[in-house]
């Protein structure tokens, strides 16, 4: 016996699919979303019940509730005899339903949603906190379109997890356009209950580019500042790295920046067979561990620094590297290539709604 057809709009279909992909979604709502989606595709009540290990009347109930109330009808209704409590599933279902166009907003606030559900906004906010839901938040993402994505992930991760015996693995990149910023007034020092403060206004004294090579086995860094960042500076830095590690097999991890693939660079690498280059996939700078070190030097030495000239900025960078190396520790990669590729596939599937 087939269930009475469930007609579902494309927007509701995408919403229910989004519920299936949301880790914090209560299992009850996920089950009901599957019931409606399968019923809309013509799956029989018996088949749906068997797939989900539930009864046919349960399938019929939630299909009927959806016909009458839409996605919000899939939340549990208050039961008689129970004290009045906030229906968490109802709040979550309503939160994940886009606000009506008449409100002119892109997402719910706790007050707007509370008014619609006839609740106190504090009750809505409490459910959001408990479930880790932040309607106002938004992350960004970018997928690599590199046709050699899988091969490069396997290559680089394999190098991190099992480097060749006796070889040195170095992650190389450049942090460009670092600004030498001076403040218009002296900074105010930190005090109890008051963090350090500085003026919003600043004076720019120029920029420099930092080329760095991170030895992952020790955490030590070879660094050099240049006024430009063309292939000539990059080649000069490669030679500096090679001189710092003479007569040893080097494996260099770097991105696909154009200067890294200039003919002069290729020719020099060909003349130095002890050096092997491993390229990360495009749009995957997170795979280059020197980026972690760049974030460290930015936080600890550059962001809060005051520099009256590029020379002062360069001196501060050298001082940080000189202080870093004696206390450095290995940078340890933990994820396998399989774990990374599985997560990438899952994210892509989630983004396309399939």
Automatic annotation (TrEMBL):
Recorded coiled-coil stretches: none
Pfam entry (one): HTH_32
GO molecular function (one): nucleic acid binding
InterPro entries on file: Homeodomain-like_sf (IPR009057), MscS-like_channel (IPR052702), RNaseH-like_sf (IPR012337), RNaseH_sf (IPR036397), Tc1-like_DDE_dom (IPR038717), Transpos_IS630-like (IPR047655)
Gene3D superfamilies: Ribonuclease H-like superfamily/Ribonuclease H (3.30.420.10)
Domain Tc1-like transposase DDE: 169-314
Entry-linked PANTHER family: MECHANOSENSITIVE CHANNEL MSCK, POTASSIUM CHANNEL RELATED
NCBIfam families found in the cross-reference section: transpos_IS630
Protein name: Transposase
Native source species: Flexivirga oryzae
């Amino acid at each position: 016996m087939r269930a009475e057809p469930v007609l579902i709009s494309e927007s509701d279909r995408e919403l229910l699919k989004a519920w299936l992909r949301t880790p914090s979604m209560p299992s009850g709502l996920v089950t009901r979303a599957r019931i409606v989606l399968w019923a809309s595709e013509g799956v029989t009540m018996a088949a749906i019940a068997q797939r989900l290990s539930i009864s046919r009347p349960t399938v019929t109930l939630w299909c009927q509730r959806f016909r009458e109330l839409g996605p919000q009808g899939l939340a549990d209704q208050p039961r008689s005899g129970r004290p009045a409590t906030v229906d968490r599933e109802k709040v979550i279902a309503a939160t994940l339903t886009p606000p009506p166009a008449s409100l002119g907003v892109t997402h719910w606030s706790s007050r707007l949603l509370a008014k619609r559900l006839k609740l106190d906004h504090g009750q809505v906010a409490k459910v959001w906190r408990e479930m880790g839901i932040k309607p106002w938040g938004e992350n960004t993402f970018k997928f690599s379109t590199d046709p050699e994505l899988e091969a490069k992930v396997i290559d680089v991760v394999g190098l991190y997890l099992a480097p060749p015996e006796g070889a040195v693995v170095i992650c190389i990149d450049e942090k460009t356009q670092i600004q030498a910023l001076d403040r218009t007034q002296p900074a105010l020092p930190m005090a109890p209950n008051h963090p350090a403060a500085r003026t919003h206004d600043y004076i720019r004294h120029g920029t420099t580019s930092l080329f760095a090579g991170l030895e992952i086995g020790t955490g030590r860094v070879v660094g050099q500042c240049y006024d430009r960042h063309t292939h000539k500076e990059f080649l000069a830095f490669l030679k500096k790295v090679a001189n710092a590690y003479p007569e040893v097999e080097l494996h260099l991890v770097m991105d696909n920046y154009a200067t890294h693939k200039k003919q002069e660079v290729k020719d020099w690498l060909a003349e130095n067979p002890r050096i092997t280059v491993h390229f990360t996939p495009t749009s995957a700078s997170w795979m280059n561990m020197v980026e972690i070190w760049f974030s460290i030097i930015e936080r600890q030495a550059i962001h809060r620094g005051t520099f009256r000239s590029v020379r002062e900025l360069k001196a501060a960078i050298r001082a940080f590297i000189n202080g870093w190396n004696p206390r450095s520790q290995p940078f340890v990669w933990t994820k396998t290539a399989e774990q990374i590729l599985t997560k990438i596939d899952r994210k892509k599937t989630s983004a396309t709604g399939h």
